[in-house]
Amino acid sequence: MIKKLILPLIIFTLILSACSGSPKSINTSTNITAPLEIDKDNNTAPPVKKAEENNSIKDNTSSMDTKELDWFFQPRNDGTPSGEPKEVLDLINKYSAYYLGDTSKKYMYLTFDEGYENGYTSKILDILKENNVKAAFFVTTPYINSNKDLIKRMVNEGHLVCNHSTHHPSMAAVAKKDKSKFVNEFAVNEKAFEEVTGKKMVKFFRPPMGKYSELSLAYTKELGYKSIFWSFAYGDWDIKKQPSEDYAKKVIMQRTHNGSIVLLHAVSKTNTNILDSILKYWKSSGYELKSLTDLPDR
Q1: Which of 159, 168, 257, 265 is catalytic?
Q2: pLDDT of 2 over the 60 cut
């Protein structure tokens, strides 16, 4: 009798175990999405939001033109600013770049490019001080590291020391190839300047060799910089082919105009020799030398 009762009980137990057991596998081919884990305090889903923001940044630059362009200007000898094609002006205005300042007044903006030291910068600083003129010096990292006393003097005498990149490359080429390297061209130079002076570098950038693209201008603006081109320059950069002083004076005087951003190279012996007379000419003609910090807002 007992055996007859035990057998049905065992069978019933086995059936019950089979019904309540978990399945050994789950079908993962279904298209069901698990619910997002919500941050109850902020009522947000941070991981998804972050992905959307990254995609937005990528989309903003992915369609930008990476073609390398060379800055140029069309010089005039009648005291009026150079003209630029509409497509160039559109880029300039869109990405907070400048080649002219305030043209409604007799303002000028004097800038020097410093790729390397040729022994003239100290004299240039003397002349600027004697004439009570402040200028902007665009410097590279090797220049900073090799000329620390000059950098300190520029700062102490009220001049702007601005970013001209670390390695003096085509910024259009760097932007097209690697954004992180593009950023480092700014950051390394900033760090070198701060280590020498204890100050932050002002946010003005001159693209080396005047090479740029829409993408490089966009990246520059994203870093908080204003790109500074020029409305006057001449062949002063080749130390082996220096223009005569008479020619240089004539060209500079003929092409002086309201709002001019003047680019001179500090390696030039001619520039150093004529600088005092040029500054006096500008002042006697009613021009006021302004800082890049006085450029109109854009």
Answers
A1: 265
A2: no
Which position among 59, 78, 113, 149 bears the catalytic label?
113
pTM, whole model, 2 decimals? 0.80
Contact call for residues 188 and 252 (beta carbons, < 8 A): no
- Angstrom distance (rounded) from CA 143 to CA 114: 7
Q: Is 168 a catalytic residue?
A: no
C-alpha angle 70-140-276 in degrees, rounded to nearest 5: 85
Calpha distance 263→210 (Å, rounded): 11
DSSP letter (8 states) at residue 74: B
159 is catalytic: no
Please give the domain boundaries of the chain with CATH numbers for all domains: 92-290 (3.20.20.370)
Tokens of 255: 């092409």
- Which DSSP helix (H) or strand (E) runs through 42? none
State pLDDT tens for residues 189-240.
999 999 999 999 999 999 999 999 999 999 999 999 999 999 999 999 999 9
